[in-house]
Amino acid sequence: MVSTRGKLVVGNWKMNGSRAANSVLLDALKASAPYPASVAVCVPAPFLRDVAASLQGSHIAWGAQDCSSHASGAFTGEVSAAMLAEFGCRYVIVGHSERRAMHGESDRLVAEKAARALASALTPIVCVGETLAEREAGQTEAVVSRQLGAAIELLGDAVAQIVLAYEPVWAIGTGKTASPAEAEAVHAALRAQLTAASAAAVDVSILYGGSVKADNAASLFGQADIDGGLVGGAALNAEQFAAICKAAA
Ligand code: PEP
């Protein structure tokens, strides 16, 4: 099957922003359009209404950073995928390493969140990645394969509808980036696992995340199996983020 996957750059604002600052950031991003790639921002849930109003009709999509594994009910503090869909979200990040580490999210729970997202017609951006200790122990491929494997097991052929993000934990917010060759090796292994699971998954975009900046984006995005980026810190700076998006030609 010939792949038609395009480049995608997603900003993860994490727990940052304010209504005033977001408005300035989004105006600047819209002013820098068009971009050669698909672009999205994943924002804190309380900002979704403002962000939707700002980005409606633009070429920039929006999404959230997490969703519940449940459809509805007595889950205080959680936000359902269906609620995110009501605010026009296209994407939702699931299984970010900060949630896996700080909120004890298991591979199975992350897969369940991805399934909920798909049931509400959202595209889950499923994050996988190894810690520094796991990399140094030579376990990188085993770890990411186990994490992706949980999604494949639960989703079956629907895994073809996800976006996958490889984010080595040691590279997130640290200024350390996997070299393009290191990242490409993991992406190629993930691509092989996906296509072995489902022929349709040949079109799954695999994003790299971990200290992507304007000056390293082009070399990372130039790798055969790197289809764009999931960008944290640099997504809060319009000039940096726009330059990263433009590097995804
Ligand atoms: C992230 O939070 O997904 C991320 C990749 O962060 P940073 O770009 O800041 O390393």
CATH topology: TIM Barrel
Strand residue percentage: 5-15%
Sequence stretches where pLDDT stays below 50 over 5 or more residues: none
Q: Spatial order of the strands in the main sheet? A: 1-2-3-4-5-6-7-8
**Oligomeric composition of the shown chains:** single chain
CATH class: Alpha Beta
Report the average pLDDT across residues: 96
Summarize the biggest pleated sheet: 8 strands, parallel, barrel
- Helical/strand content category: alpha/beta
Ligands bound, unique: phosphoenolpyruvate
Describe this structure as you would to a colleague.
This protein has 249 residues and is an alpha/beta fold. It has one domain (8-247): TIM Barrel, CATH 3.20.20.70. The protein has ten helices and eight strands. The protein has helices spanning 19-32, 48-55, 81-86, 97-102, 107-119, 132-136, 140-155, 180-197, 217-221, 238-247; strands spanning 8-12, 38-42, 60-64, 91-94, 123-128, 163-166, 206-209, 228-231. It has an eight-stranded parallel β-barrel with strand order 1-2-3-4-5-6-7-8, surrounded by five helices. Helix 1 runs parallel beside helix 2, helix 5 packs across helix 7 and helix 7 (140-155) packs parallel to helix 8 (180-197). The longest helix is centred in the C-terminal third of the chain and has 18 residues, at 180-197. The model has no long low-confidence stretch (mean pLDDT 96). The chain binds phosphoenolpyruvate. The site of phosphoenolpyruvate has 14 residues, from strand 8.
